[in-house]
Structure formats: structure tokens, C-alpha cells
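Researcher: Please predict.
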Amino acid sequence: MASYHIRQYEEKDHKRVVELFSRGMKEHVPAAFRHMLTLPQTLLLLPGVPVTIVLVSGSWLLATVCSLLFLLCLWLLIRLAWRNYVARSLQADLADITKAYLNAHGSFWVAESRGQVVGMVGAQPVKDPPLGRKQLQLFRLSVSSQHRGQGIAKALVRTVLYFARDQGYSEVVLETSCVQYSAMALYQAMGFQKTGQYFVSITTRLMGLSVLQFTYSLPFAWGPGM
């Protein structure tokens, strides 16, 4: 028997939802940092900077210090990018979840365990979908680190899919960053197909942090397995 249940969002959940989102996004900073270290430009700079400094100054100590400063700058750049994203989100849809989701023909759900909100997900209609399609977009999927591995994320995604089916949508779409590996694996395991990839800005392009787009096509009738 599941140790959690999923229900619709209530105003009293707002503080906990904001905490879940903020902590969940913060967890991706190390993954983004490791991702940046694998980029061709970073792999060129990491050995190139100290070698150049040694050739110019003859000091290995200075070269080591500069290399460490370079890595620190990368780390701070990623932290800043993530913090800015969280801040924008908290001022946008997460500022008033009822208005952004429940009053906009969408919905927002939380997973509750022992009286505490441990997971969340939202859904909004896509305003300008491709011709002939009715799309619902999945947003803000997050599960507390202490409650992962219990199938909560999968249950939350299924909740969105059921809602989309009942409301007559033809597709559920979503976007996630290229370093959210667990989320991508979950979506693909549940039948979402990657349909696009883009960079939000020149800065994210330089950082190699792309946004991936996924689509789930809803069948006319689901079998008992769903």
C-alpha cells in the first residue's frame, strides 16, 4: 500500500511547494558544473590556462591559483544562473499557484505523506499549440529527496496524463534541462518522446545548458495498464 496520496493543491501548501522547488533546483548545480567540465571549450581552457601562465611567468604556483580561480568562477556562474531561474519562477507562476494553474483551466497537485507535502506537479494548457493539436504542458515536477524511489514522481506524471485524457487533450508536453538526468529517464520510461532542444540565451549556450522538449501522445483509449 502506498505511503502517500495525491491531491489537488491548496493555499496552505504554498510555503512547502516553494521549498520543494527551491531545494530541488539547487540539487542540479553540481550536475551542471560537471556537465560544463566536459564541454570542448572547458577541456581546452583547463590545461591551456595554466600552461600559458607557466610559459609567461614561469610560476607553477600562479598557474595553480589561476586554475582554481577559473573553476571557482565556473561554479559561481552556474549557481548564479540557477538562482536567477528560481527567483524568476517564484515571481511568475509559483507566486500565485491558484491563479496560474487552477484558475487557468489547468491544475496543480501535491503528493502528501504523513501530513507533509513531499512532491508536486502542475499542468497548464498550451496557449498556441500546433494546428490540429490540443496540448497540455507539465510543469514543476519535484519530489523531496527523502521520498524518492517510492514511485511518487511516476504517480504525479500519471496524474497529469489522466487529467489530460479526461479534458480531451491530444498531447502532454514538457521541458527539462539537459542535466536533469533522472527526470529525463523517467519521462522516456513512461513513453515521452524527445521532440526538440534549444538554448534559452547566449549565456546558456556558452555554458552548454540546453532545454530538452518532450511529448507524450495520448491514445484514444488507454488499457487497464495505465
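Model: The chain is about 45% helix and 20% strand.
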